[in-house]
């Protein structure tokens, strides 16, 4: 079943720069698929806490990974997860008009602690494959002890806010255009480098294809 546009709620309504907002679920999925690190925001003991962690997803849920000792991964509490990609600086003629080209997603909801063993294993598979496609079937999978030491949270993708900024500075048709100053964008890209073997690795163990193929490909 194809899911419809993202709903607009009190938490996801775009109040500033509405033209940069999107309710297209495909934009949300593209932003999530382009990265694998998110920031999990939660209030713990009355204080805000923002934790960087890895994630994976299916069509309806985001899975966030952590340690059982982490206070931010208790489950059953409101959270906010953000994923942001910086695509470049927007350098205008005036400092006031400077900006950033970016893609961002902010997901709101009540995190659910995954306790079902099958869902937990599937969530960890999604998370692993999201970061390194092919690695789940290549590496040893978690033992019962390792699963018990790992917390996995599930967060619905239903309530999300998406914003995207692209293009040139906004002052090309204003008075500052007469200043004779350079203006434009400074793109930012990142790519995967050459795999670096563990120094303890025997020389006869070759880099697996699913890792070697990522060298030079764009990330983000």
From TrEMBL:
This is Pyridoxamine 5'-phosphate oxidase family protein. It comes from Streptomyces coacervatus. Transmembrane segments: none annotated. InterPro entries: Pyridox_Oxase-rel, Split_barrel_FMN-bd. SUPFAM superfamilies: FMN-binding split barrel. It comes from the Bacteria. Gene3D superfamilies: Electron Transport, Fmn-binding Protein, Chain A.
